[in-house]
Every structure is written in structure tokens, then in C-alpha cells.
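Example A, followed by Example B.
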Amino acid sequence: MNMKKQGITIAATLAMVFAGNAMAVTNGSFTNGLNGWNALGDVNLQAGAILMTTASVDFEDDFPESAGAFNASGTAAAETGVVGGIEDFIGIAMGTLNVQENFAFEGSVLKQTFNVNAGDTLTFNWNFFTNETSSGADYAFVSINGNLTQLAAPSDASSSSLPYAFTTGFQTFSQTFDAAYSVTLAFGVVDVNDYNVTSALWFDNVAVVPEPETYAMFLAGLGLMGFASRRKQA
């Protein structure tokens, strides 16, 4: 194989490796709006990231603020515990969003399904906002194939942040997959114990990063190819 053809082969292989992982999540930086994602409730693109809330449109959730003051999209938060509600949308059993004896009432969710390989790591940036006091039970979560991880609740939000009362500040989530399979990823935020007082989840930069060993082995292989080529020329 001459050097030109070898270069084309290496470039094509590199493109396949990097593109395969880049395409694991479609539009994870939301540069194309909500393309590739499915939404339910109050989900909106703001400044290149996603903001979802528990806010209604027609009710004064955060009195004395006006009705819909914290709604981001013009679509009300969706119901939980009903056919076609949030649990159905995610693919989890009714009641899964409840916290012990505290019932989830409404919320919003965004989801996507994609494939991962063993050793791949899911990462994203997030921030939780709320008007609840620290005793409130609202929470934000991420669901991976129906397994819920709570990201934050009002007790975790201690910093002031306008227009909301409190925020956790910006955080990073990371989880490594132990096998290759299809993943349904969902982000959500829910009102617990009431329909009043808005909480919100902001997130961005959703990506699946391959394990470092994959790149190390690939680069080692490229090095061996280059060495063999130089020996052949000599």
C-alpha cells in the first residue's frame, strides 16, 4: 500500500471511530434545538441549553408572581400518575417518581434512545433551580433505562439565583457503562407534595465518551502502521 492510500485508510478509520462515539447521542449540545429528542411538559431551549420546569401556564404557582411567570415554553408541566403522563413517557411504573410517602404531582421530561459500548462514559452539565425552601420535596433526576438517579432537591440548593430563589450551582454528572446495550436516557424535574412553587432543571453538553483504552490501543496501532511503512520505504 503506498503512503497516499495508507493515509486515506488511516483517516477513514479515525473518522469511523470518532464519529461512532460522537453519534451515540444525537444533538447533545442542542445546537439544532430539540432535534433528536422527545419532550413532555415545559421544556425549552434557552441560550443553547435546556431549561425544564414544573410550572403551569394558567395558575399562580409562585404567588404573588403572575400565572406562568416561571414557565419556560408556554406549555404546562405534565401530570404524573396518569396514562400518557411522565411515567408512561419515560417507561417506568406508576409511583416510581414518588419519594417514600410524598407524591409527585407534575413535571417535565426530555428523552432520547441510543447505543453505548462497554467502558463508554455518559457526561453532562446541570444546574437545579427552585423557589422551594430547603424543606421542599421537589427534585431533578436523570433516568437511564428506568433507573432513576436524583440529581438535586431543594435542600441541595443554598445559593441565591435570580429569577429563582435558590440554585445548586453548575455541576457535572458522569456514569460509565459496564456493557454494550441500548440506553433510554431521560432528564426530568417534578413537583412533589403540591402543584405550587416552581423548580427547574438546566442541562447541556450531553455526551458519551469512549473509554481511554480504546483511543490508546488505536493510536498504538497507528504507530505500528507508520513504523512498518518507514521500514518498507527504507
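Example B, a separate protein, is given below in the same form.
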Amino acid sequence: MISPQSSSALIGALEFFLGRREGLQRFDFSLDGFWRSFGAILYILPFFAINVAVEHRLRPPEVMVTGPSDFVFVLSRLLDLGLDWVMMPLLLAAFARNLGIARSYASYIVVRNWASVVMSAPQALIALLAGLGLLPLEFAAILSLAVIGVMLRYHYQIVGATLGGSPAFRAGLVGADLALSLVLSGVFSRLFGG
């Protein structure tokens, strides 16, 4: 059962994605709302599970033999997700004052966290269709890249609406968030042989 606050935030994230700025009014920007927004990861888990299941299923046979066990594979992905979920908010909190965003930091994190659910859904759908053989892998990869582009633009708009700043600042923050995710993913792949 989705709580009314969660439902409102998810609708707000979807509305903002669709270009309706009034969607921002659906978010709870209180201190409780800030901490509650980290619970959005629970709504990401089904999409995450689809992605991990398909990734596991599509691993080459030699990786299945020499790579990590199923348990270690899933554990590495869960650890990656968890660390990725908190790392950018922690780093940004440490530098918020220097970046001049201390007053709007919490609002950005609230919207970013809930918007992550919206950003996770299309990739999971592509993975599911590819995993079921309904979408050729090459086309799925191209479609996935296009979706990433759309989601980066969405994230850019979130930064602009909550933190403001110059286009360079917005692009830099979006780029830093993406780079951090890629670095963490690479580290976990190396550590666990995924």
C-alpha cells in the first residue's frame, strides 16, 4: 500500500517529468519529507530486480562459469544500489555551503529521490522486453541510451527548478551524479567480478 505522501510525491515527479511545473507542489519539503524521500528506494526495488534478473540471464556462458555466484552477483548489485542512493546526497551535503545551495539542498534531494522512481521505470521496461526476447538486444541498447538522454535532461530540469544556478552548474551536477554512479558500478564489478 502506497502512503498518501508517497503517492503525492510520485505523481508530482511524473507531472514534472511531463513538463508540468506545478508537480513540484506535490512534494513534502519539510524535514520529515526530506527523510521520507529516501524511502523512495523501496519503489525502485521492483525495477531494480527486473534489471538485475535480466542482466544475470544475459551474462555470457563463460562469465556464468568463472564469474561470481548468483548470491554474490545480486549482493554486489544491492550494495551498489544502496551506496549510490546515499553517496551523492552525502557529498552534496558536505559541499552545499561552498556551492551556495545550502538553503535549497533539501528540496533538491526530495525531488531527486522521488524522481529516481520515474527514471527507473523505462529502463526496467526495456530490460524486461529484451529479457523476454521481445526486443532485439542491439535495439534495446540503442533505446536504453535514448532513455538515458531523456532522463539526464529530466535531472537537469530538477536541478534548475530546485537549486537554480547557471546552465554550467546544472550540467556539472548532473554529470557528477552520473559519473559517481558509473564509478561505483565499476568498483563493485571489479570487487565482485561481476
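On Example B: The helical segments are 4-17, 31-37, 41-57, 61-66, 70-99, 105-131, 137-162, 167-192.
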